[in-house]
Amino acid sequence: MTGQAVEGAAGLRMEERPTSRHLTYSLLVMTLNEIEGMKAVMPQIPREALDQILVVDGGSTDGTIEWAQAQGYPVYVQRQPGFRSAYREVWPLVTSDAVIYFTPDGNSLAEAIPRLIAKMEEGFDLVIASRYLDGARSQDDDAVTQFGNRMFRTLANALLRPRGSARMTDPLVMLRAHRKNLPARLGLDQEEAFAGLERLFRTRVDWIPLMSWRALHGRARWTEIPADEPPRIGGFRKLRIFQWGSVYLLQLLREWIQGFAPKPRRKECS
To answer: What is the pTM (predicted TM-score) of this model?
Structure first.
């Protein structure tokens, strides 16, 4: 069943949206053996706020796919491993103007979804649900992830943030909303942004950190809302801290170095 929508494109769940909205919204529920979390978290999803819900599965063997189908959720089982592969494969099935990423492992707060949508309606390209803004906190951080998150946000703001612009407090979090065309606008769909570093560290990475680096650098209109990160429900962490962290760090440094590259001169009209 890999590489296809289990229910087919015609089975995508569409909800009637309020007429006052400017954009439509698709929720991508990213799963890999998350049956416990799915049962606990998915009933909390505000379906009436969304135009499409898609479960994007990495090849679960614990009943996640079957449970999602039984609840009426369309499921796409990806062909290639990794979040970025999943996004690229499922993108043609996304029917809305904007995308929201969501993990049903307990870490993503369902009640943040309407707040992300409300902020997007103000005209932003990207809205991040920050775990470190205005009193929000992560209940899933340990000493290692806390250090990594702090290091990346400090470096990103020091190296990439234009003078006088807002600081980004949570560049690595998955829970966020953005316009569907933003990855193409930021070049996240280009293999050269990832392939060399992925080969070097023998891994596949998400495009979310690079999205943050490039948005922070001024290539998109972005903002954040505060949102707690609850503890994980069942399953296990799939982080590859050293490999992924190394790729994200080198991507960040590359973005900083490229900022010093001379810009091509515009030809004068004669």
So the answer is: 0.88
